[in-house]
Amino acid sequence: FSLWCFLSLIQFADQKQEFNKRPTKISRRSLSRSISQSSTDSYSSAASYTDSSDDETSPRDKQQKNSKGNADFCIKNIKQADFGRREIEIAEQEMPALMALRKRAQGEKPLAGAKIVGCTHITAQTAVLMETLSALGAQCRWAACNIYSTQNEVAAALAEGGFSVFAWKGESEDDFWWCIDRCVNVEGWQPNMILDDGGDLTHWIYKKYPNMFKKIKGIVEESVTGVHRLYQLSKAGKLCVPAMNVNDSVTKQKFDNLYCCRESILDGLKRTTDVMFGGKQVVVCGYGEVGKGCCAALKAMGSIVYVTEIDPICALQACMDGFRLVKLNEVIRQVDIVITCTGNKNVVVREYMDRMKNGCIVCNMGHSNTEIDVASLRTPELTWERVRSQVDHVIWPDGKRIVLLAEGRLLNLSCSTVPTFVLSITATTQALALIELYNAPEGRYKQDVYLLPKKMDEYVASLHLPTFDAHLTELSDEQAKYLGLNKNGPFKPNYYRSAAA
Amino acid sequence: FSLWCFLSLIQFADQKQEFNKRPTKISRRSLSRSISQSSTDSYSSAASYTDSSDDETSPRDKQQKNSKGNADFCIKNIKQADFGRREIEIAEQEMPALMALRKRAQGEKPLAGAKIVGCTHITAQTAVLMETLSALGAQCRWAACNIYSTQNEVAAALAEGGFSVFAWKGESEDDFWWCIDRCVNVEGWQPNMILDDGGDLTHWIYKKYPNMFKKIKGIVEESVTGVHRLYQLSKAGKLCVPAMNVNDSVTKQKFDNLYCCRESILDGLKRTTDVMFGGKQVVVCGYGEVGKGCCAALKAMGSIVYVTEIDPICALQACMDGFRLVKLNEVIRQVDIVITCTGNKNVVVREYMDRMKNGCIVCNMGHSNTEIDVASLRTPELTWERVRSQVDHVIWPDGKRIVLLAEGRLLNLSCSTVPTFVLSITATTQALALIELYNAPEGRYKQDVYLLPKKMDEYVASLHLPTFDAHLTELSDEQAKYLGLNKNGPFKPNYYRSAAA
Amino acid sequence: FSLWCFLSLIQFADQKQEFNKRPTKISRRSLSRSISQSSTDSYSSAASYTDSSDDETSPRDKQQKNSKGNADFCIKNIKQADFGRREIEIAEQEMPALMALRKRAQGEKPLAGAKIVGCTHITAQTAVLMETLSALGAQCRWAACNIYSTQNEVAAALAEGGFSVFAWKGESEDDFWWCIDRCVNVEGWQPNMILDDGGDLTHWIYKKYPNMFKKIKGIVEESVTGVHRLYQLSKAGKLCVPAMNVNDSVTKQKFDNLYCCRESILDGLKRTTDVMFGGKQVVVCGYGEVGKGCCAALKAMGSIVYVTEIDPICALQACMDGFRLVKLNEVIRQVDIVITCTGNKNVVVREYMDRMKNGCIVCNMGHSNTEIDVASLRTPELTWERVRSQVDHVIWPDGKRIVLLAEGRLLNLSCSTVPTFVLSITATTQALALIELYNAPEGRYKQDVYLLPKKMDEYVASLHLPTFDAHLTELSDEQAKYLGLNKNGPFKPNYYRSAAA
Amino acid sequence: FSLWCFLSLIQFADQKQEFNKRPTKISRRSLSRSISQSSTDSYSSAASYTDSSDDETSPRDKQQKNSKGNADFCIKNIKQADFGRREIEIAEQEMPALMALRKRAQGEKPLAGAKIVGCTHITAQTAVLMETLSALGAQCRWAACNIYSTQNEVAAALAEGGFSVFAWKGESEDDFWWCIDRCVNVEGWQPNMILDDGGDLTHWIYKKYPNMFKKIKGIVEESVTGVHRLYQLSKAGKLCVPAMNVNDSVTKQKFDNLYCCRESILDGLKRTTDVMFGGKQVVVCGYGEVGKGCCAALKAMGSIVYVTEIDPICALQACMDGFRLVKLNEVIRQVDIVITCTGNKNVVVREYMDRMKNGCIVCNMGHSNTEIDVASLRTPELTWERVRSQVDHVIWPDGKRIVLLAEGRLLNLSCSTVPTFVLSITATTQALALIELYNAPEGRYKQDVYLLPKKMDEYVASLHLPTFDAHLTELSDEQAKYLGLNKNGPFKPNYYRSAAA
Q1: How many helices (H) and strands (E) does chain C have?
Q2: ipTM here
Q3: How far apart, in whole angstroms, are the C-alpha atoms of residue A79 and residue C266?
Q4: What is the pLDDT of residues C105-132, one digit of tens each?
Q5: Which residues share a beta bridge with C117?
Q6: A99: burial class by Cβ within 10 Å (0-12, 13-18, 19+)?
Q7: CB nearest to B419's CB, from A263, A275, A297
Q8: Any CB–CB contact under 8 A between D275 and chain A?
Q9: Residues in chain A closer than 8 A to D345 (CB atoms)
Q10: What is the pTM of this model?
Q11: At which positions is NAD(+) bound (chains A, B, C, D) (predicted)?
Q12: Could you report the per-residue pLDDT of C36-57, keeping only the tens digit for each?
């Protein structure tokens, strides 16, 4: 741990306010974000069977012990472990890549000696990841990156299985930081790897235990917000270990955005409104990967889709894909559904909502909850009526209603579920990034933010092909030579990226 | 009421058992069916806010009165009327055709003098229909055609509005017939029109009050089962009033099957299993309208779809639409999802389920609950595990699980919702059929089963076009003459039908 | 041949003018029609290698003999026989159903004793049909139904093979009737079956050799126009033999219209204009099967498609399929391509063409050449410029050009080709219809126009399934009983029809 | 012109053989390539009306003069100028971006003083580009980059318009280099910009007139091959002026590959074989942009499509898009059509062709003519039969035929046409690259190969939006600040690239 690094952290602490501010430029959406904004977002988990009616004692005040007498955890209720175990087993079936990694790990343990501290959503899928890391040789301590998203029964199963988990559904903000602290501030154990989702864990260590970075080999960060924070640190010369940005790997991006949203836009709209898509006029704001997914799905269901864009290249793509490119004001009076996918702010403002027709559905699939100016609807002349969970009717004085979903937060997180397969992509990417950073020869990675090497990105993809009974073709020696490629990849240059976000 | 008709009923009563037997040939699916089989099917209503925890007193034992002192109804709880009214108002917004009929009825009352007894699902959409019939001049008395499907709050709103409604959610079979009886067996009021869904009401009158048919101008029947019963009666020479089969109108068929199922297959699968469609291998049994809808939707979501068919014409269509036509045993080991849409029985039998792969999802979108041989799974060596509402894991001794949805009942009724717009098509068709039969000049309709006249079918469609801001082109006089058509339709011959079921 | 029949023909002759008038109501399009209108339509045959530059002597003036000395034919040039034979062999590979029929015929000859006189397009595909009929036991004499469509080399191969063929490319109208006459007016041979396409052959026999009908067992007619004439005859009580309308069989309809046009609209537009479809705004007039095919194809290529309709049921389907339903005048200024598929007349009139934008492409996929009012463009102020075969620029005084394809005739016949597979469906239908009529027990068919029995329609489809390696599922005895069906079909009622035309 | 640069060229000349060798690694396909390989490829030009039967005198031996007495050109026939002018005018209508550039150039002349020597296909679209460059202030001299692709009438129109054009259809290789030399080796005129397509012009100057580079401000190169040569030069330290790689701009890539091939695969197959796509089984080798376009189009037409891939990321995309990922040998026996889009060599080898079924169509949409091992079919036991232009039947001893298109060369160049709109994208990109290089401040570009700046790429796209009546949304100041973007772009980082090739 260099002096420079130490000094930089002092400055860093001074600049904490800036650190917590909204990112000023974020070009991609994420499924997660930091406490400052979204660690408190509600996050629906379809598979959560947690009974909210159980006892009110704070987990922090309970004596807890698993069946083997281990007490190094803090969760809601250890008795839910069996139920959580089944959830984990079900998730395992849709996370073939991690299971394959476990199998390969029977011979060698690439994470032997790794002490990983993690801060992510705690769900059945995360449990599969943690148990895989463990099978690969790592020790893990874990906290939740969101105060609402923990599946208590899964946390119980993990605790029962011997993991030091500190998380429950409905933490206070104080609980949140307490849990993180319990993960890192422990006698006789010091992490050498960080797996973060939102940057709060990294931030806490920077702030409280900067010396810990001496032993840390690297950070793996999964969220837009967290990655942004890391780039800020790097730019400011304050990043003192290598960091891997797994958010921007090609495979993960495609699944988080195009493939996931193609399905979740339909799911989210149906679950909340039971709307029929056929014949509906829809405007989709933004034709990045998320917008492309939404447009393709709705077109396939018989909707008439209009697109708005600011980038002429994406705009031209929308044209070639058969969507009329309009300005929002040209169609706002006639559309039945408005969907934002821009990553921008104030895309749908009050002026537009004033002109929408009765019954118009308004929702957000984009990066953050700023795309629809929901605040502008909180005025005395408008009446809000909650008609279902996540569905509000906002009623104008003349009786016109618009149907606002999830109060402008992300529809696919609030009103739909993220398929396990998508989470499998993410978790596998995280696991490989940890392995890469942990095993990289000295000097390969500097104190900077890196993208997952192309070859590992390809490896994530290849581990998921068996799910589809998909058979990859191998290059012959002659072909590999002709193309100037190694037979095992990488098959594309590092700069190769997925399509427009 | 002819002697012949009376006599026929005697025979009819003798053949009751046969009457209650499963139809021996049914070529189209329906959203409803009779008590003998499906009046007891569970029917999910997403908009139902009925609190199942309220008091246990049977509605039949309660004193009930609406705010105007009227007591001629029997429902769960009149206090829910306000809530039900809002549900009705929301439904009105998506039933533009009925609202348009109401408006046109301000001048003339085509149902003036009509006394309609109805037996249908009692939902917000039915309420819009009933209030439209009333606005057109009719008096109505109503019972439920299914013991589970009544929205209690809507029944309350109807009772508060002065309708004689006899229905609640969770009727016993005895309640079911009691409610129907209360609709028809009333001092000083005798129905002259029947609106039935499943044939139970018609059956009851035939059995108990055959004399009532003297005054009845016609029956409008909406279900496959009910229509089948009517054709049986007609064939046996026992139908003593004209009946209109509204189930088979072109517009209704397209919406009930193709358009509705195209959306509900995705919705039903997502809500129950959160499965990701992309890359999944799916086999769809049957390529009628329902199968076509399912295939189109899944293909659009990136699934690889196989089709089985018995009819070479439908089979060839599947080929031309890009689906591999297979026998079930050719793909049963490899598919991730099996969907039945045949109207047939024992399409997916135990032998196939024994060979499915671990995690395979099995569900039914077809006519009845016979397509999957669920009974064959109720054997000692298999374990059933209910993992969510409507989702069972059936577990083989070797640990293999298949995921059975809705216990083989209709997925789209059990695990999805029928969009109001689809119900609007049905309700409008029913209203026009009632008007047609009630106003038809003597002799136009004999004691037979009729399809809705082409022109009225077209009228149903035209009343729904404004929803889409769709503008119909009118024929010029010259063009009409050239085509040999009336400018106002019908535009197709009566025999013209929708595509393969 | 009854007296009544004879008398009726006298009246018939008097009404000849009416007979030759345009049909007043035609609800479906066809690939062929009568001399009065379309026997003179140009018909592109991609596979035609006929050298138009060869000798100018009329075939009628030539001495012709095949290698076996047979001279009972009249064609362009017997020397082209080898070339024609190869064309036929290639066609055989894509007409598996006829080849399968030939194989089955090795045991029995269902057409033994049949003497068939035919009048159809004479192409390689027709040759496969004729040789199949011959293999099934029939004797054939054949003329062309269109003065341009004969493939001379195929006619040569047929003549060389012993068929009495009377046809060449570029017949005069006098030649046309002379050829037909040579087919029927022959010493010692009298037809007992008629295979017609357009009704000209039937008309000729009615007019010239009414006595011939005494021995004729039936007429098989393939075209809209011909079928219309037969219905007129039947209505007037003048049809004196059974006739089979093969134009309206379900399988044929689907292929002629939906499946064929889905491909040929793209092909026809590309070959003539090289237009890029992506992003283009297109209006399709008419949403019958042809319109549905055009819309689906263009939507898939990234065009933005608008639809016009007069029938509210088809209109509603367009909405549900995701097309904006407009009146032509709403979009005429903005569209890049206008396609007519209505079967109507004067759908695109001068007023609309005056308002089209520069470069707008106008073409017709509908029934006849009346849909675009091409005559209205033949005015002095407009300049016509032929830029390619089948492509005219019509230039307004201000320099605006519209691109008119095939002078408003059928684009898919003029500028594209009909795939052999589609022709195979038609030819197989014709063959089965001939077999059915020839073998039907006395009395099954009266002097009326019949549709091909459902079961034979299904048989046509089933004969084509092996092409796609498609495997049909067979009903079990139990299932057949449950459905009330014969295990071998028919699987749908006779009234069952394909979707909207 | 530095001494270093001069010296490097000496070495360069020595390495000429290497220079002419096939590129060893090419990851993207192009529409053009060098004389060594593809300057001699046949290139179909649908709009070419050149009469191949006219006089046989070499243009080099003719006295030629345009109507103004100018003789500084060498073409086929100056009399065809009027006809060529009309072709150019028609092309202008589909090249709105260049026309817009001309308009903007009325005020300023960004190419004033530019002396551009060009070597490209000489077509109507190139003429629009040349006349635009001229309108922007440049002087141009031009040769053809392919010995077959020149539209003689267009060359005539250019010569008549005063351009020094040296090109005709059917040049010998000696003619080819002579024409290039005439462009550069001219008294009193020295080029300061190069626009090349394939690198032959650049190569010629390097070889013959290295001193010329002293005055040259930059090279704009359009082809894969030419770009590859430039990168080789750069790597070897021998590139002595800045070069702009316009082949890899995002907009151009999308159009050349995804959008263009989506349409041309259908067009190319139809024009050559009239195959019906519905129900056909197709295997597409390679799921880059070209493969994606082919797969999407064929799927939309009802084909059943299989995909082979070597790259797991592209493979996973194929799965998610609904295509079965196979190895070629798994499906080779059953498919009806095989399409290569890999950029690789020997993808379809004799062993596979031996196992194809009768009638299987084989074609190549990929980078070069190496993907299908056509040489392996030139063996004595196989018979080749040319059935149409670009269509060969290769016949096995047992009679099996495969249908080989364009002898394995690029189907879309040989058997289809490239839409003017796609060429407009390319030409606009070229024009902007010339402007950028010509006007760049000293030092912005070094002696290296550059991609077109993101902002100019976006500008190319924006110039094409009006064609689609597409309306771009502008960022508000507040939004631009939020996103950290300039309101006028660039909207994406420079590293942002289009999807997989």
Answers
A1: 19, 15
A2: 0.86
A3: 65
A4: 777 899 999 999 999 999 999 999 999 9
A5: C141, C194
A6: middle
A7: A275
A8: no
A9: 478-479, 482
A10: 0.88
A11: 288-293, 309, 412
A12: 344 555 444 444 444 444 567 8
